Structure formats: C-alpha cells, structure tokens
Amino acid sequence: MNTLILRETTRVLFTLILVFSVATLLRGHDAPGGGFVGGLIASTACCLYVFVADAKDVRRLVRTDPLKTAAAGLALAILSGLIGILLGGRPFLSGEWAEIGGVEIGTPLLFDFGVYLVVVGAVLTFVLEIKEPGAVPPPDSEK
Amino acid sequence: MAALGIPTARVPLLLRASVALPAALFAWFCSLVPRVSSGETLHWEIGWIPQQGIALSFFVDGLSLLFALVITGIGTLIVHYASEYMRGRPQLPRFTAFLLAFMLSMLGVVLADNLIALFIFWELTGLTSFLLIGYQHEDATARRAALQALLVTGVGALAMLAGFVLLGEAAGTYSLRELLAGDASLAGASNYPWILALVLAGAFTKSAQFPLHFWLPNAMVAPTPVSAYLHSATMVKAGVFLLARMSPVLGGTEAWSVTLVGFGAVTAVYSALASVTRTDLKQVLAYTTVMALGTCVMFLGLPGEAAGAAHSTAAVAAMAFILVHALYKAALFMAVGTIEHSTGTRDIARHGGLRHVLGPTFVGTALAAVSMAGLPPFIGFVGKELLYSSAYESAFGGFALFAIVAASVLIVTAAMLVAVVPFFGTMKQSARDAHPVTWQLWIGPLLLGLLGLVAGVATTPVFHGLVLPAAAAIAPVPEHFEPGLWHGFNSLLLLSLATWATGAFVFWLRPYMLSVPGALLDRLPVTGDRVYDATMDGIARFSTALTRRMQPGIQSRYILAVFATLALSVGATLVAKDAIHLPSQMPSVTFGEWTLVAVISASVLTVILSKSRLLAICALGVVGTAISLVFLLRGAPDVAMTQLIVETLVVVIVAIVLLKLPDFRNEIRQPLSERWRDAAIAVAVGTVTTLVLLAVTTEPPQLALTEYFESMAVPGAHGHNVVNDILVDFRAMDTLGEISVLVIAAAAVCALLRRRTRYRIDRFQRLQRRYAAGPGGARASEEDA
Fold first, then answer.
1. Is the model's pLDDT at B231 over the cut of 90?
2. Are the C-beta atoms of B686 and B563 separated by less than 8 Å?
3. B113 and chain A: CB distance < 8 Å anywhere?
4. A117 within domain boundaries
5. Threshold 0.80, pTM exceeds
6. Which of B637, B652, B660 is nearest residue A32 as measured by Cβ atoms?
C-alpha cells in the first residue's frame, strides 16, 4: 500500500486533517462536530500515516505515549468538572462560562478537548499496539 | 549472616516527614481531652447522599477519643520507627502511603457516626492492611497471609453490613449518635438474634476470636512496624471498638453475655497457652495480642451481679486494658523489630546477652514487659487488678475469674520470654554479631515503656481523662470511682502474687511447655488455617471446573451464545408482552433510500460469500457507511459523521489485525449445517431488532426530554448543537464514564500486547539484588524461610 501517490498525498493530508479535526472540535458546540468526532478525525490522520510509515515513525511523530495522551485527556475532563466546585461550590461537571474578547469560553469546551485527547490517544494506542507492540522503555536505564 | 553494619541507604525523607500527620492529629485529639472528659460529645457533618439520609458525619465521645489517641499516638511513634527500620527497602513511598491511609481509615472507623460510613472505613482498614501485610509481595507466604487477612475480615465485614442494615431498619436510624441517645437497647427487636449474630461475626473476625484467630499470627510476615501498628493499637482493636460501641444497643442480654464471655474466655486462654509455646518472638507477641483481644471481648460481655444488668466496672476494666495493652504491645513489637534489625533473627533460642549490645532497647522492653506482667507501680498492675475485681464481682464470677487468671499467668510467662531470654544469659553468636542501632529504633519502645510507668503512677488523671469517659460510653460509670495502685492487702492482691509466682514457675518449666502443649497445639486435627485452605482449594477447583465449561476459548462460540441469548430473550419478551406491531401501511421511502438499501444488501451478500477476509471486512465497512448515510438523510449529521469515521477506523484496525494473522485462504470452511445454524441466528437477531424498533416507533414519542434539552440548550449550556450540549454538559457524567472506559481499554490493550515479560524479570531481579545488598538482606531470607 506504500505507494508514491499515497505517501505524497499523506504529507499534505496529514496536516490538513489535523487542522480540520481541531476545527470540528471547536465548532462542535454550535454546529455538528465536537470532541468525540474531532478526535476520531485526528485518529484517521494518524492511521493514514501508519500506512505510509511504520509504527516507530508515528510514535516519533506524536512524541508522547498515546496512552499517556488518553490519560491526560481524562484528567483534563475531570479537572474541567472540578472548576465549578472550586468557583462556586456547584455540583461536579457544572458548566462555567466566561466571555473573553467577545467569545464565550466555558468549561464544557475544556471537557470536550479532554474527550478529543482520550479518543485520539485510545485509537492510536489500539492501532499502534496492534501494528507493532511497543516495548516498554527500559526503566531508569543505568547509564 | 547478621551483622550488616549501620545502614548506609538513603534516609526515606518522605516517610520521616510524614510523622507530622499523626503527630498533628495526636496533638489535636489531646486538645479535645478536657472537653470530652467533662461529658461533651463533639460532632461534625458533611452531606454525602442526603437523599438516602447518609451523611459523612463524625463524632467524638470518650470511647472514640481513647481509640483516636491510641491510633494517632502510637501511629506517630510507629511511622517514626518505620522511617529507620524500613530504610533501604524498596518502594518506600508506597509503603508510606499505605501506612498513612491505614491510619486514616482506622480513625474513620472510630469517629464515624453513620453505620454505613463506619462499614466503609472498616473495609478500608481491611484493604490497606492487605496492602501492608503483603508489602513483601515477592514472598508467597506474605501474599497468602495478606489474602487470608483480607478474606477472613472481609467476609466478617459483609456479615456486619447485613447486620447494620437490619439494625438500621429496626432502629429507624443509621446514626450512631441517635442510636445511642436515650434508651438505646434493641434487645426487644424481632430481628435481634440476627442482628447480634451478624454484627458479632464482623467483630469476631476483625478481632481474631477463636477459632477465626488464625489470620493474625500468619499476618506476622508483614514488616515489623506494620505488625506493631496493626496488632497493638489499631486494626484488631476495631472489633473490640465495635463491640464497645454496640454494647448499649445490643448488649445486656443473655445471648450477648454468653457469646462474648464464651468466645472471649476460650480465645484468651487458648492463645495465652499458644503464645508460650512459640519460639519466634513475633509469634509470641502475636498470640498475646489474640489473648488481649479475647480478654477485651470477654469483659465487654460480662454481666453485672444480677445477670442481664450492665456491668460498669467490667467496662472500665476493658477500656483500661485496651490502653495498657496498646502501650506495652507496641513497645514490645518495636523492640522485637529492633532485635531482628540488629541481629537478623527473631528465634528466641538464638538470642542471649543482648542487653550489652542493645542497652536502651533492653530498658524499653523491660519496662513494657513489667507492665505486661502487671507489676506495680505500672499501669498494667492497675489494669490487671481491675480485671480481677470486675470478674470476681460479675454474675459469671468463678468462670470469668478462672479464665482471666489462667490467661494472666501465661502472659506473665510470655512477658518473661520476651524480656528475659534474649537479653540475659551468656552472649550468644547473635549478640556478638549484632550491630548497635540508631536512636530512632529504641526511642519508641523506651518512651512507651516509660509511659506505662508514668500512667501507673498518675492513675487518677489517666482514668478521669481517658478511661472513665470511654467506659461511660458503654455503661454508666459509678460516681466516685477511684482506681488506685494500692487497695490494701486483700484477697485480690494475693491472687496477683499467685499469678506472678505461677507465671515465673511456668517460665522455669519452659522446656516442657514447648514439648507437651506445643506439640499438642500443633497436632490439632482441625484448625482454622486448614479449614481456610480447604475452602480456598474448593473454591478454586469449583471455578476451574466452571470455567472449563463456560470458556471454551473459541471466539465464534462466544458470539453465538451472545447473539442466541439476545434473540431468544428479546424475542420472548416481545411475544410475552404482546408488543409486536406491524405497521399498517408502508412508510414512504425515497429513491435515495432504496439505493442505500440495495447497496447494504449487496455488501452483506459480499461479506457472506467472499473468500477473502480483507474483502469481507471492506464490504462490512460499506454497510456501515451506507447506514451512516441513512442517518444523514434523516437529519442526524452528528451521528452520521461519527459513524462514518468509526467505520473507517474499524476497517483500518481490522485490516491491520488481518495482515498480522496467518493466511487463512486455504482453511477448511465450516460444514454447511453450522453455516445454516449461524444464518438462522443472524436472521433471528435481525428480525427481533426490527420488531423492537417497530414497537418503539408505534408508541407516541416521549418529547418531554427533547423539549427540555431544546429549550435549555442556549440559556443553560450556551450551545446551539443539542447533541453536543448533551454530551459535554447535560449528561457529561455519562461521557466521563465512557471516556474512562476508553482509557481503560487502551491500557488493557497495552498490557496485553506490549512485550513486558522481559522487563518484568529484569526489574524483579534488580529489586532482589538491591534487597539482598541492603540492610534488609538477612531479614529477607529469614522471613522467606
């Protein structure tokens, strides 16, 4: 499957799809989209990359362990729920909104971004681990 | 083997710094003493599940305060002691966290107001003690002991929960404060026997009453600071605490007295006898702990002179004994730990003359042992005199007095075993090899030993500040109750003299004690330990047999079972509820939709007939894509979008899996009969699903929720996309649950697929090497043996 055409298109598409996925995430609150589908779109970009490169390259590209990305997303989602408690003693996961420069920003967006990260992290974990199980890095390697 | 020199390992700063927590708590509880001893009950409340009347509320009365002080006070010394004792052992931050978590759960048990909260904290002590006992998890005996403690106390705790529920229903409240207010007794309740039996099951397993005591001596595989903490001051005392707490509610009946005195007396005498037949210092202490628990249980059950009346002196005696025991037992455990740390062994026979090497430890041990033997002017003497006098005055006078005197005689012997044998006599090899220890290892025993002396001299403030308020929570304490060191030359003093003399005589007879009763105890045909093993084996065999039947390991069979069950159960429900409604007229279908139906049908046929798996999986992707187009046509763009991408990803993932699998093209296809069976089930599932959808759509749609979401989307959730509002705001909790599942699934994939076997072995070997090289090396091999 690793043809020249696919390789060259992927170069362009990869960034394009990632940007599109973030756009989908951001517009989600008012139009079709959101963190879940945005995360899925971003994962397809990575899958495309998996086809033209091998898993090692993709790991290098995304820099972090995708499992950690997923965990960070979960933590972000939980944190977004705590903001309401801290600010006004409202129940866990209450939406808190503020207007910054005419744009409404709220904790649900943070939560959605958490969902996005979880989805990307989890799907990438599935794909990469199946494609080529990553070895656990040697713990505190004795240099 | 032993002499390892002074440990050079890094000081575990976290462990040392964490002394601040118990110390601060101890100081705070100390500051509460004046208010509580004047009869006040302090109370805090945090709402938890208000709908169910469950609140996280805490209260401090005399009883909780006595226990809280013991937990935090001894906890302070133990954490400090552990910071030196555990130096150089692996995974100390983890150990610190477990120890502190254990302490806090224990505090929760004694301070909780709500019965359910008490149960939760009770279980938390079980869990954390499991982690502490199993700290040396590479050692199979440690793992077994940890599991045993968890299971035995856990089963008891479940019984206790059932008892609490019955109790709460019978009394109409789950709040202990409300339960204890006014005339609290539930003796007349119709469920009383059940409540009593279930609550006692919890208390007896936790407090290691015969014949369920076996887990406690086994738990001695834990590092010594853990044993010192769990078995002197805390975990095992939880059962005693519960009995004391429940005494006004459940006590005062004949069933209560007979059960508690019976179990308590047997436990006390049996374990006192067992303690003097042990050769491992920690085992000696473990059995004397069981003896102390038996004594407490017995005295909490003792009725007054007239059967059925509460016996206030016995309650005072039990509370005093708890304090006495906590002081001397923690000191002795720490001292034994120090001996082991210094010499590398706990075998009594291998010790002698240690007083020349471990001077301060010797002083601490001697002070504690004298209090344990009940000699004046130590608090132990006051405690023992109270035990004797209240046993004598009770309705079970003769029996109770006999049991407590017999147990006390043997405890004198055990005290001599611990304090005399290792320290006196000629220097043995272990003493010559011993290395001197730093002050952290002897300050704890010395302080506690001195405290036993101070408390004995200052009996009146100790009793009025701590013991009497605690006893008052159990039974009304007589006014002008004056415990003292000296009651004149009476028959009880004679009895004490006889106790010491006999104890010393038994100590002199030790070689015979080891051979005769020791051998007898070892040859008991049925012991709790063996019953436990047999039960565990039985459970394992049963589940193996069951698993063999239920889990053949063939994927297609699992799917078959799931789908067949689905079709049958849903189909049966549809028929039984008469819910099959076929639409009277054909709904209008557009040309586009017909096209999609055609595409889906063609793809399904391709899936079934294709010889190539890759083609089949692609065709399956087409089915999914076509279905997402249906969503799009029906005005659900969010669902369509998501489905479309999910289908793509599924095809990609499955394709990657297929590329990894061996070539299947030449495999033998299933026989025709099986394929017909599979087809029938597939058709059945499809039909049932269609019927369910039809049944749902014939009902008038429930629009209340839809209207709510639509009206609240912009003002409440600040978003125009209702689907997204539901996901991230209205029902964000559900989403949080879903993404948690996703993360867990990803972690599971890693755990299954990553090559970590090699890494695990490396790490394990490295840990072992470090362990062998560190100060704990000798100990490790000792405890493995």
1. no
2. no
3. no
4. yes
5. no
6. B637
User: CA of A127: which chain B residue's CA is closest?
Assistant: B653
- B116 within 8 A of B54, measured Cβ to Cβ: yes
pLDDT of B600 > 90? The answer is yes
In a domain, A142, yes or no: no
CA B671 distance to own-chain centroid: 54
* Location of structure tokens 């391709």: B606
Cα angle B511-B512-B513, degrees, rounded to a multiple of 5: 90
CA distance A88 to chain B (A): 16
Number of domains in chain A: 1
Contacts of B82 (CB under 8 A, 6+ apart): B15, B95, B99, B223, B225, B226
Q: Is the pLDDT of residue B625 over 80?
A: yes
Integer Cα distance of B357 and B776 in angstroms: 19
Whole-Å CA distances, B30 to B103, B153, B307: 17, 31, 37
- B721 → closest Cβ in A28, A118, A127: A28
Q: Per-residue pLDDT averaged across A60-67, rounded?
A: 84
Q: Which helix (H) or strand (E) holds B623?
A: helix B613-633
CA B756 to CA B142: how far, in whole Å?
25
Residue A106: pLDDT over 90: no
Contact criterion met (CB below 8 Å) for B72 and B39: no
Q: Classify each residue of A110-129 as buried b or exposed e, where b means 16 or more C-beta atoms within 10 Å of its C-beta.
A: bbbbbbbbbbbbbbbbbbbb
If phi > 0 it is left, if psi is from -120 to 50 it is alpha, else beta; for residue A102 that is left
Does A40 sit within 8 Å of B642, measured CB to CB?
yes
- Per-residue pLDDT, B741: 94
Return mean pLDDT, chain B.
Answer: 83
Strands B42-49, A103-106: pairing is: unpaired
The whole-number average pLDDT for the span A31-50 is 88
Q: Which two tokens stand for residue B706?
A: 């839809």
In a 13 Å sphere around the CA of B341, the CA atoms on its Cβ side amount to 28
Residue B278's pLDDT is what?
83
* Cα(A93)–Cα(B589) distance, integer angstroms: 42
Measured in angstroms, the CA of A114 and the nearest CA of chain B are apart by: 9
* Chain-centroid distance, C-alpha B414: 29
A139 in a structural domain: no
The answer to whether B507 and B417 are in contact (CB under 8 A) is yes
- Rounded to 10 deg, the angle between the A35-52 and A4-27 helix axes is 170
Beta-bridge partner residues of B4: none
pLDDT of the residue at B773: 57
Residues B2-56: pLDDT tens digits? 334 445 677 778 888 888 999 999 999 999 888 888 888 888 887 777 776 666 8
Amino acid in the structure at residue B777: G
Q: Does B740 touch chain A (CB under 8 A)?
A: yes
What domain range is A122 assigned to? 4-131
Greatest alpha-carbon pair distance for chain A in Å reads 57
Question: Is A138 inside a domain boundary?
Answer: no
Average pLDDT over residues B743-769: 71
For the purposes of burial, counting CB atoms within 10 Å of the CB of B235, is it exposed (0-12), middle (13-18) or buried (19 or more)?
A: buried
Dist. CA B467–CA A58, nearest whole Å? 68
- On chain B, the residues whose CB falls within 8 A of the CB of A74 are 739-740, 743
Q: At residue B567, what is the residue type?
A: A
Is any Cβ of chain A less than 8 angstroms from the Cβ of B735?
yes
